[in-house]
Here is the input.
Amino acid sequence: MSDESGISGHARSVVVTTICCLAGIAAGVVSAAYVGTDPAAAADTMALVVLGAFVFLQYPVYSVFGVDITDFGVKDNFYVAFMTFTLWFISYTVLLTSAVTF
Here is the structure.
């Protein structure tokens, strides 16, 4: 079963989850590169600004892949934000604790 854009429900879920996860990892790497990985960088709120930017920048990407974002409800938007945050948190924490330098 597919909607008018030709993407099935399962494919929509896979696309949204993949983009969320990749955006979260990219946000963690950009946070580490932009804010840094020293102990003071762990308390810098600019990393959260980077995370927020990556959450909002995903929505045009969904349209490119054929996902109709006008159908997103509160639950879908929360899922996008939560998954992006989770992967950002994990990747940025790994980069902070391993003292990677860019």
Q: What stands out?
A: Helices lie at 9-35, 46-64, 74-97. Residues 9-97 form one domain. The chain has a mean pLDDT of 91. DSSP finds three helices and no strands in the chain.
